[in-house]
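Deviation from plan, reported transparently: heme C complex.
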Amino acid sequence: MGIKQFVPVLAVLPMLAGAAFAGDAENGEADFKLCKSCHAVIATDGTVIQKGGKTGPNLYGVIGRVAGSDPDFRYGESLAAVSETGLVWDEENVAAYITDPKAWLEEVLGESKVKTKMTYKHRKNADDMAAYLVTVSPADS
Ligand code: HEC
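Because the crystal trials were delayed, the predicted structure below was used instead.
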């Protein structure tokens, strides 16, 4: 394939990637019941958006913040190590993380002896959940 045919293909790829993560936020919101045993969503001003447990960190503003950076939560050592790299959560990597936290940590850290404190795997519709988390992550959170 010559370079002329190749360039348009590259230009289309980011659009395809975007479409792949166009999850349904309403579905994600309905599925949040599966996260509530461990996670709440509480806005900076104290407004409770989702009542939930404290086994996991508050997920308000999670999209756009550095992984493992809630100062009120003690993360496991592997997610803390990711945090040190400055990795920022976006729809794509959050969807991958919640699908299989341990496998994601192994891949990102490039090691097989990771420890995750999130034992749950959200195997179905993770892109919908990611889209929902965007709605509770305003730019100023
Ligand atoms: C059994 C409890 C449990 C359930 C259920 C659970 N989580 Fe978690 N989650 C955790 C814990 C604990 C952590 C911290 C992980 C660590 O430190 O290794 C975490 C971390 C996270 C993080 C990273 C947050 C950050 O501050 O970097 C995200 C995102 C997340 N969970 C999303 C979800 C979503 C969405 C669901 C529901 C689909 C869910 N979790 C279900 C316990 C849970």
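The chain has one domain: 3-135. We consider this an acceptable substitute for the interim report.
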